[in-house]
Amino acid sequence: MMSGVILAGGLRGRQDGEPIALLPFAGEILLQRQIKELRKVCDDILISVDEPRPFLTAVEADIRIITDFYAGKGLLGGMHAGLSLAKYSSVWIVGCGMPFLSAKAALILRKLQQSGIDAAIPVSGGYRSPLHGVYSKDCAAHIQRLMLNENATPELLMDTLHIAEAAEELFMAAGINPHFTMDLDSVDAYRASAVKRNIQFQ
């Protein structure tokens, strides 16, 4: 098993002032949809938030709700908190606006990460996605050092870690649709693309 972290804090985690994670999607609350997928491969699940109160009644009692150690650091702050408090050495980190998470893809990424590297991340459309990646818990120390730089970004983190980049073809060969890296900002674009490519929208 591995730990799973959902990053649900900061402005990126909100839409019109409401937490994106608590919005409905495909007939269920997005956060609950994500937790359901994480449970397939994670028995330790954490949600990193700025304000815990809205989430307390939205999840089961075994889900840990945590806040950032370093406030105002965006994704890096949430990643650092999740990695620091994770129970397992391999940690699957996702964003709260990602409706198409794939546990099967996470297992592929974990196998790559456990080959002795810091992290395994998916690459979609030539873009390295730090989210939906599987990280060594030890990456918390890397992030802590990186955050001493006020201009630190997730992209800079990718450049400082020893990572494996998993291309779309790797997932497609395993029968996994590579749309799992998309977030809510991309849903409309995905719908249009799915129609063209005759892919079922889930």
In a few lines, what is going on in this structure?
The protein has about 200 residues and is an alpha/beta fold. It has seven helices and twelve strands. It has a single domain, classed as Spore Coat Polysaccharide Biosynthesis Protein SpsA, Chain A (Alpha-Beta Complex), CATH 3.90.550.
Straight-line N-to-C gap: 26 Å
Main sheet summary: 8 strands, mixed
Shape: globular
Number of domains: 1
Q: CATH homologous superfamily - what is it?
A: Spore Coat Polysaccharide Biosynthesis Protein SpsA, Chain A
List low-confidence stretches: none
InterPro entries: MobA-like_NTP_Trfase, Molybde_CF_guanTrfase, Nucleotide-diphossugar_trans
GO biological process, one term: Mo-molybdopterin cofactor biosynthetic process
Pfam families: NTP_transf_3
Protein name: MobA-like NTP transferase domain-containing protein
What does this structure look like?
The protein has 202 residues and is of the alpha/beta class. It has a single domain (2-197), classed as Spore Coat Polysaccharide Biosynthesis Protein SpsA, Chain A, CATH 3.90.550. Helices cover 32% and strands 24% of the residues. The protein contains seven helices and twelve strands. It has helices at 30-38, 74-85, 103-113, 139-146, 154-160, 168-173, 187-197, and strands at 2-7, 14-15, 18-19, 24-25, 28-29, 42-49, 64-67, 90-95, 119-124, 127-128, 133-136, 163-167. Strands 1, 6, 7, 8, 9, 10, 11 and 12 form an eight-stranded mixed sheet that branches. A two-stranded antiparallel ribbon has the order 2-3. A hairpin with a 2-residue loop joins strand 2 and strand 3 (18-19). Helix 2 (74-85) runs antiparallel to helix 4 (139-146). The longest helix is centred in the middle third of the chain and has 12 residues, at 74-85. It is globular, with a radius of gyration of 16 Å. The mean pLDDT is 89.
